Amino acid sequence: MKAIQATTALLILATSLAAQPTEADYYPITDIPLPEGETIEVSGIDILPGNKVAIASRRGDIWVADDAFSANAEKAPDWTLFARGLHEVIGIAWKDDWLYLTQRPEVSRIKDSDGDGRADIFETVGDGWGINGDYHEYAFGTRHDKEGNIWVVLCLTGSGGADDKSPFRGWCMRVTPDGQTVPTAYGIRSPGGIGLNHLGDVFYCDNQGLWNGSSSLKHLAKGSFQGNPTGNKYFALTDVLGAKPPEPKSGSRIETERKKVPALIPPPIVLPHGKMGNSPAGIECDETNGKFGPFSNQLFVSEQTHSKVHRVFLEKVNGYYQGAAFPFLKGFGSGNIVARFAKDGSMFTGGTNRGWGSHGKKPFSFQRVNWTGKVPFEIHEMHARHDGFELTFTHPADPASLTDTTKYLMEAYTYIYQKGYGSPVVDKSTPKITAAIPGKDGRSVRLVVEGLIKGHVHELHTPAIRQKGKDHPLLHPVAYYTLNEIPSK
């Protein structure tokens, strides 16, 4: 009798688990075969006229695919080699019949003038920075901003140095339509990707290391200091940004040092090391007008080591960006470097496991993510309030599951701001959630919190929240909010 009861209980549990939605129910990942026999570490993607898709390889090739929107593991697209022999292209952008490339030494543009499918005109647009052959002198570029500029972020030499032979390492440069290279921001260490939000503001991902306690998504405001002073020596080469800022104190905290160094912009999103991956990369904004689901104007961040894509909600408080990072989608074939939305809502992704390895075991990958039309039950947005946070949801939640404050788990912490490599989690605290007040429609809850701390990540777990009428938990019941500013009442 006991054996029968145990078997029945296991069946009920298995049925319950099977009934819970998974990421693939909403956003399946489709493999797209790459040209046979080629090694293509996808490092740039853009959509060309006629629904063609161009991809760049970190090894210097540009390929163009027909039928990538319908391709799958069994049906390969038609591939055409557009260009070969370029220098580590990490970022491409189509504009006015030219394909613009951010290569290691320059921003270039190439064109097929005779219509045979191969580029035959190659032009340098801007090259106002240095390289010397060091393996780590990467350059990452955006698509064009509203003024036609391409923004480029430059890794330090050897990931931690600033060589006299390679000027402006650790800087962000704007390459203008007329070919000027304009120093724009500084204090960068080891970027993994760069992109724009729907308002045209530019962000990049910097990886954990010197002066970076954990990897972060940072705002490249003009004239801003991003935190690593190694490349500040290049102020001797330009007066565009004024005087060199004072040196931050090693062993301090970002929140403390930003009061002493006015140009220091706190990172809008800290991505806790290990929890949200180890190597954030490309940044892509959902401007598909709902064709990719309910996350319009939010950012999607590729994660190389963990082979994932994260979702980021941003808001401005007291003039500074801040917000919450959420898990979004895992299970990609290799280490994600770049993502690109098409107008139909398709998200194309690509990457490589070279160098640092990745959870996805393929040496490289090119894949497509499409929304099935079903809306997942998620925290849609997380807003800071003067006395806590307000969560909104993609579906109404069961009111009873929102009100019990003991079912919310929150901790706050930060990282040491130091010239040494990375940092452990420090200054941990446990803010107390004293009230949980549901919105009348069930699509929001106001959390009153004692113990908010400026400059800290506020990690929130919500395992008890259930979707109204379905008893489904949140697909991702965790959020990481970086609280740079506390709103006034």
- Helix count equals 3
Say what the CATH topology of the largest domain is: Neuraminidase
How many domain regions? 2
CATH-assigned homologous superfamily of the largest domain:
TolB, C-terminal domain
Tell me the number of strands.
Answer: 32
Q: How many strands, what sense, and barrel or not for the largest sheet?
A: 8 strands, antiparallel
Cα-atom radius of gyration: 23 Å
What would you call the shape?
globular
Walk me through this protein's architecture.
By secondary structure, this protein is mainly beta. The chain has two domains: 41-369, TolB, C-terminal domain (Neuraminidase), CATH 2.120.10.30; 379-483, Immunoglobulin-like (Sandwich). Helices cover 6% and strands 38% of the residues. It contains three helices and 32 strands. It has helices spanning 2-19, 254-257, 399-403, and strands spanning 29-31, 42-48, 52-57, 62-66, 78-83, 92-95, 98-102, 107-111, 121-126, 139-141, 150-154, 171-175, 181-186, 191-196, 202-206, 216-219, 269-270, 280-285, 299-303, 308-317, 320-330, 336-341, 347-352, 364-369, 379-385, 388-393, 409-415, 425-429, 432-438, 444-450, 456-461, 478-483. Strands 18-19-20-21-32-31-27-28 form an eight-stranded antiparallel β-sheet, with no helix packed on it. A four-stranded antiparallel β-sheet has the order 1-24-23-22, with no helix packed on it. A hairpin with a 5-residue loop joins strand 12 and strand 13. The longest helix is centred in the N-terminal third of the chain and has 18 residues, at 2-19. The radius of gyration is 23 Å and the shape is globular. The N and C termini lie far apart (62 Å).
